[in-house]
Automatic annotation (TrEMBL):
Its cofactor is Mg(2+). The gene is aroK. Mg(2+) binds at residue 14. This is Shikimate kinase. It catalyses: shikimate + ATP = 3-phosphoshikimate + ADP + H(+).
Length: 171
């Protein structure tokens, strides 16, 4: 069984994924962490030194590698993973349990403003343009996120509540 969490930066994929894997006693993998370990470089450094196109190529390669592993896993992917190539198709073929962690724009902006520096795509956006940038980016990406088999809101709820709701959705 694979449970794959997708959603925008800051939506809570890693936080929810870790808590879910603990409850289910299933291994947790985060694709960003996997890429950093395999490339021996942080995501920030990969973007800076090799560019986004290189990152996206590697992201798809490592996604395929993880999806081909015959193990049970809760996998959180990067915010952009489902939006490039046919990654969302690969994700949905690998499991009936792909889950879009959907989080309100205002909540996303609050979370991301605090953690901007770790995320290369938003690190340089001016504060006065931040909300509009995220709104547009999220709108463009929603087409891909909405292809997940399930959807769950992650705002104004505790991590435990969201995990409980996800467990009820699993097939
Ligand atoms: N239900 C929740 N209640 C309160 N805070 C939350 C909740 N879910 C996530 N957070 C907080 O939101 C922030 C972003 O969460 P997280 O890093 O898990 O997102 P992500 O989707 O993995 O982001 P990225 O795509 O950038 O890796 C973290 O500081 C986390 O603690
Ligand atoms: O939304 C995105 O495109 C990204 C999200 C992060 O998880 C990382 O994968 C990287 O910073 C790119
Ligand atoms: Mg994450």
């Amino acid at each position: 069984m694979k449970i794959i969490l997708i959603g925008y930066m800051g939506s809570g994929k890693t936080t929810i994924g870790k808590a879910l894997s603990k409850q289910l006693n299933v291994k947790f993998l985060d694709l960003d962490d996997y890429i950093e370990a395999a490339e021996k470089s942080s995501i920030n450094e990969i973007f800076k030194n090799k560019g986004e196109v290189y990152f996206r190529k590697k992201e798809t390669e490592y996604l395929k590698e993880v999806l081909n592993r015959k193990e049970n896993v809760v996998l959180s992917v990067g915010g952009g993973t489902p939006c490039f190539g046919d990654n969302i198709g690969l994700i949905n073929e690998a499991t009936p349990n792909s889950i879009y962690i959907k989080t309100d724009l205002n909540v996303l902006c609050d979370r991301l403003m605090k953690e901007r520096d770790e995320r290369p795509l938003i690190a340089d956006i001016a504060p006065e343009e931040f909300q509009e940038f995220i709104a547009k980016h999220l709108f463009e990406r929603s087409f891909f996120y909405n292809q997940a088999h399930h959807k769950i809101g992650n705002q104004y709820k505790s991590v435990e509540d969201v995990v409980l709701q996800i467990r009820k959705l699993l097939v």
